[in-house]
Design a protein that fits this description.
The protein is an alpha+beta fold and 229 residues long. The protein has one domain: Penicillin Amidohydrolase, domain 1. The protein is built from nine helices and six strands. The chain has a four-stranded mixed beta sheet, covered by helices on one side. Strand 1 and strand 2 form a beta hairpin. Helix 6 crosses helix 7. The N terminus and C terminus are likely disordered.
Length: 229
């Protein structure tokens, strides 16, 4: 009975938060015109073999704005996945993560990435998705929250749900020179993730930009050149 009651409360909390967030999407008729200056030099092509290609250029703030505006539907969809996964797996609501994004993560983020994530939020809002920069930071840190919550609960003597774990994620391998048969580079990369977010990797996007040395494949919400890249 207790488990059923607890699950019911969690379901109500998730549904209530999802309903509140769904109200952040404005009807197209109420949207202001996007900033032409901020979108200058950017473009989005129709999907090809499951890949959506967008071209972004300019300052970090411009790149972020273009990113948020051109990929607003994908970002809004991905947020619903993170909302479900985070609240289910950790027992913390979305506002818990927004608060941590603002007070724990933001002070350690370099200005360049702050400008870009603020730009993403601005672009989203211009497209009718009313997320702010804290929502964007939460989504960018989605891979890290299980580590944070585990330590957060431990420091406060809170019993974490069994789903709060430190999971394995990406792994990569590179060899070159005498370590390969022909001396050329061999690179491999694995992504270990859940089905809900993993299924959306098909909409990861190649971003040709002047700020990065080469084209990159990214989630719809990740900054272009994160410090860990």
């Amino acid at each position: 009975m207790r488990r059923a009651f607890s699950f019911a409360l969690l379901l109500i909390a998730i549904c209530s938060t999802a309903f509140a967030l769904s109200r952040r999407v404005q009807p197209a008729s109420s949207l202001a015109a996007p900033s032409e200056a901020m979108l200058a030099g950017s473009s989005r092509k129709p999907p090809v073999s499951g890949w959506t290609v967008v071209h972004l250029s300019g300052s970090p703030a411009q790149i972020g704005y273009q990113h948020g505006y051109l990929l607003a539907p994908e970002i809004a969809d991905l947020q619903k996945v993170f909302l479900l996964e985070l609240t289910h797996d950790t027992g913390k609501d979305w506002n818990f993560y927004r608060d941590a994004a603002k007070n724990v993560m933001w002070p350690h983020i370099e200005q360049e990435y702050r400008d870009e994530m603020q730009g993403i939020a601005d672009g989203l809002q211009a497209h009718g998705v009313k997320f702010d920069v804290w929502d964007v930071v939460v989504m960018n840190a989605a891979e890290e929250w299980s580590y944070y919550v585990g330590q957060y609960d431990k420091d406060r003597n809170i019993k974490s749900p069994s789903t709060v774990t430190a999971p394995d994620h990406c792994s990569a391998f590179v060899a070159t020179g005498s370590y390969t048969k022909d001396g050329k580079i061999v690179i491999a990369h694995n992504d270990w993730t859940g089905y809900l977010d993993g299924s959306r990797w098909r909409s990861y996007t190649a971003f040709p930009t002047r700020r990065c040395a080469s084209n990159r494949a990214h989630s719809p919400i990740r900054p272009m050149c994160p410090p860990s890249a």
